[in-house]
Design a protein that fits this description.
Rossmann fold, AB_hydrolase_1, Pimeloyl-ACP methyl ester carboxylesterase
Length: 262
Amino acid sequence: MNLAYDDLGPWDGRPVLLVHGHPFDRSMWRPQAEYLAERGYRVVTPDLRGYGDTKTTDTKTGLDVFANDLVELADHLGLASFVLGGLSMGGQIVMQLTNDHPHRVKALLLADTFPGLDTPEAKQARYDTADRIAEEGMERYADELLPKMISKQTRASRPDVEAHVRRMMRDAPKEGAAAALRGRAERPDYTPALKHIDVPTLVVVGSEDEFTPVADAELIHREIAASTLVVVEGAGHLPNLERETEFDEALSAFLTGKRFTP
């Protein structure tokens, strides 16, 4: 799988690999990529299989497949180990990769994500939504999701963020998004493995997140001993875009903190 990706910053900088969520693309991480690259990090932001500029013929893509794609990309770029971050589905892919390839990960960012399984109803809803968007496309689905993706405060004060989020969702390839939903419905429960994570971990969540509320982030924080929890006030499910200054400062403080060993 040849992933489309951006590679910003000096080639010999500390590598940071950031994984976008559903139904987005690598531009979701543009503020953080530029911020960290200016500070000497090498920041790699790929489009996952079936998203953005990366094509797929899959009808179902498991999170293990996404994780293996990322490891192949890291191998291609010569990154033996890296800081690994993900948001929402991207965070679940990060947990999968950490389980499968723990020696590759130097530190973690888990943003607005949750480790547990779906309820039977939520699992079925993923299958149903996959069938629906494969048939009708992304536009109506995107319009329905948008009010839950970002907070009311963001929608009122940041039309630029709303427009960016809407564009990413509407432009997501319907086949790739449907395949990911089907695979995600069958993901394992990552909760038992959290206590085995022994690298520094930053857990971030928007205070107004409806999809993965603060309680989900608190659970992750409790289970990972070497973790720090940051709640971004006024943000919804995408604090890295809604409140990028607060998010960037928290990430920078984490990466330069005493608990992080390069």
